[in-house]
Amino acid sequence: MTATPFPVSEIVAARRPHRKDAARNYDALLGAAREAFAEHGADASLEDIARRAGVGIGTLYRNFPTRRDLFESVYADEVNALCRVAVELADREPWEALTAWLNRFAGYMVTKRAVREALDGESDIFQSCRDSMFAAGGPLLERAQRAGAARTDMDFGDLVRMVAGITATAFEDDAQRDRVLAIALDGVRTTR
């Protein structure tokens, strides 16, 4: 896999401030929002997010004038991180690379659900994020298929839907979710 920029990378770079202190606050707000959305869903308090980030509410609004701006930025940042992970995993053994990425994808789905609730899906960012995710993860599946490690009667869209379905289910804890995901991925794997 090459380091070709994904569409979402450009969105993330364009939104991130250039000054170091402003970029630090922006990153802290994204991290705090990600945590708050995972814990409280789309109704997470903006004041709580600012407090978690160690900044004032004015700094939050300077970076994200609307709640939607914050949701979109968190979503784009998460997808951008998934794309970077796919590139980092490209040198690993094909099955290991694919499953490592899918496990990261499963964790991302928790945040995505909260953000998706708040957005209507009509955002241009959603399409760029989807395109980027398929461009990052699709080659990992194709590589595992060429190596004979993954079944060839499926495509990346099938795999994403399977993992998304699993992560949409309520689990007792992350360990149970990881076990169920591992069981499902055993159905994708062709070699043992």
TrEMBL record:
| Transmembrane regions | none
- The feature table lists the DNA-binding region at 45-64
Pfam families recorded for this chain? TetR_C_43, TetR_N
Q: Does the keyword Zinc-finger apply?
A: no
Name the source's superkingdom. Bacteria
Q: Which residues form the HTH tetR-type domain?
A: 23-82
**UniProt KW keywords:** DNA-binding, Transcription, Transcription regulation
Protein name per UniProt? TetR family transcriptional regulator
In terms of InterPro entries, this protein maps to:
Homeodomain-like_sf, HTH-type_TetR-like_transc_reg, HTH_TetR, Tet_transcr_reg_TetR-rel_C_sf, TetR_SbtR-like_C
